[in-house]
Amino acid sequence: MKKNVIGMLAVVSMSALTLSACGGGDSEKKASSGSGNELTAVVVKHSLTKKNKDMEWLTKLEKDLDVKIKWEEVSADWDQKKSPMLASGDVPDLIIGHNIVADTEFAKFPGLFADFNDYMDKLPNVQKMFEEKPQTEAISTQLDGKILGLPKYQRFWPISASRQYINQEWLDNVGMEAPTTWDELYAVLLAFKEQDANGNGDANDEIPMDWSPVGTGGFGYFQPMQLLASTGIVPSGGGNQGYFAEDGVVKSFFTDERYKETVEFLNKCWKAGLINSKAFSQDYSAYQSTGRGDGDDAKVGFTWGWEASDRFGTKIADQYTSLAPLAQKAGMTPTWSYEWDLNYAPNCVVMSANTKNKDKALEFINALYDPEIGLQELFGSIGPNIEKDGDKYTILPPADENVDPGTWKWTST
């Protein structure tokens, strides 16, 4: 539960691990600020993450820098809010989050955001990050050499982004082995549905398969396109917009017969009632809540997640095991990789080209990349979340023993 952290490089991780906007959120529109020490900013974050005003590290930082930031905290429908904002050209001074403005949008709306190359002398922490981790500069640089979005780099994070899990207790209860193929998975899911797999006397409360909500921008982590790997396609970042590389050629799986076969298998499962009926409509918090069951009773048999205690909570996580890659058919060898380095992400901070208070905005941005601030962006504030002793930092366990460390982190900061 405790990790000693010394000399951490800066991170920008104010948005949730997931990668999906979910829940409620403010929607008031912000324009670039005027004069003095005021800035406007949008941050896209998880719906369960506490308000910015309650984050000790952030309120202290604003006070130390003598900056007043008018925050808009968005926890839902960012894509729908972002499009009209960019089209109008009326953007806040800062937008912060995980790949918050995509490279394609930089190309579509030229001149809307500042080129950080022009201000590197005011961003020494960013310069140091670029020097020590040149990957961060590479993923930030556009084809024309501009740097319109600054990245994040976060140490101490697993590189495994999306694992598939199966409830081992359910397997034992229905007398079956862990599946190795799609046909075996189908048979297991059918048994989960029909045989009161969780053993609570109710044969109708099991959800054989579940996945995270699919957004409008493409597929993502913890979603069924992971099954493409069973066919020999290795999806990048959960699938995204369909691009993958095979034998040195970039392809789209949407035009590939193997994608059709994957959808056909999922359709077979759907028709048999093996998939959560809310899989296409639930938000991320509902997905997480369902996965954590009801007390000691698990609700989900087969699903995808990042880490067991994060996906299932502390009470039932030990019921689950990480399932080996499935083959589409017996005799096939899946081409699979769980690896997707979550320690890096592009476009986590952008600045309006029309920001009047550029010096103050740049001072704040540079502070976000300070090692000690970065540590608090990732794990929570010094005090409740982190213990500091000189140059040694200890990440504290959750204050509530019923909360897993992942939830403790992303609800705190």
Automatic annotation (TrEMBL):
PANTHER family: ARABINOSE-BINDING PROTEIN-RELATED, POLYGALACTURONAN_RHAMNOGALACTURONAN-BINDING PROTEIN YTCQ. Transmembrane segments: none annotated. Keywords: Cell membrane, Lipoprotein, Membrane, Palmitate, Signal. Coiled coil: none annotated. SUPFAM superfamilies: Periplasmic binding protein-like II. The keyword Transit peptide does not apply. Pfam families: SBP_bac_1. PROSITE patterns: PROKAR_LIPOPROTEIN (PS51257). Residues 1-23 form the signal peptide. This is ABC transporter substrate-binding protein. InterPro entries: Bact_solute-bd_prot1 (IPR050490), SBP (IPR006059). The keyword Membrane applies.
